[in-house]
Amino acid sequence: MKTFSYERAASPQAAAAAALARPGAKFIAGGTNLLDLMKLEVETPQHLIDITRLGLDTLEPTADGGLRIGAMVRNSDLAADVRVRKGYAVLSRALLSGASGQLRNKATTGGNLLQRTRCYYFYDTSKPCNKRAPGSGCSALQGYNRLHAVLGTSDQCIATHPSDMAVAMRLLDASV
């Protein structure tokens, strides 16, 4: 594994400044997706910016009767919240069916929505992949693609988005 530097951001402004100052930097919170990708050298950031202390970990009711979900809310907390279970049951069920309890305890709402594809070719750095290296091609188009998209494909990529939460939020007509 390649080496990288690490810093903990004290505010959203500090996180943004750190990212601008270091091209190729990645934000990290729960790390359930990024750390796996780093182990496989699919992602090789030179710098990690820890955003776990930015205070984006709250669930708040909105004036119109909705619910504002912070990007740092843990998936286990979101799935277990009484307001979510009663008013947005599809979201709670999607979270509970999408990962193990151990992963839900670390994974965040923001990370769940922004996680990278689970395509075999994305993970295999010896194969071309437009998601990993734009313009290199999509190996899944002519290769093994049984678990890939049926609808919404393109000439560039046929991988599906891995977030069950994203599907539930779309069903609920949520704004992100």
What features would you describe in this structure?
The protein is α/β, with parallel strands linked by helices and 176 residues long. Helix content is 35%, strand content 10%. The protein contains nine helices and five strands; from the N terminus they run E-H-E-H-E-E-E-H-H-H-H-H-H-H. It has helices at 12-21, 34-39, 75-80, 82-87, 89-98, 101-106, 109-114, 120-123, 164-171; strands spanning 5-8, 26-28, 47-50, 59-61, 67-69. The strands form two sheets. A three-stranded parallel sheet has the order 1-3-2, covered by helices on one side. It has a two-stranded antiparallel sheet with strand order 4-5. Helix 5 packs antiparallel against helix 9 (164-171). The longest helix is centred in the first third of the chain and has 10 residues, at 12-21. The two termini are 34 Å apart. The relative contact order is 0.13.
Instruction: Name the helicity range.
Output: 25-40%
CA radius of gyration: 18 Å
* First-to-last CA distance: 34 Å
Q: Kindly state the number of beta strands.
A: 5
Question: Which parts are unreliable, with pLDDT below 50 for 5 consecutive residues or more?
Answer: none
Output the helix-strand order: EHEHEEEHHHHHHH
* Strand residue percentage: 5-15%
User: Please, what is the average pLDDT?
Assistant: 91
> Which structural category fits the helices and strands?
alpha/beta
Q: What is the overall shape?
A: globular
The count of helical stretches stands at 9
Major sheet strand order: 1-3-2
For the largest beta-sheet, the strand count, sense and barrel status come to: 3 strands, parallel
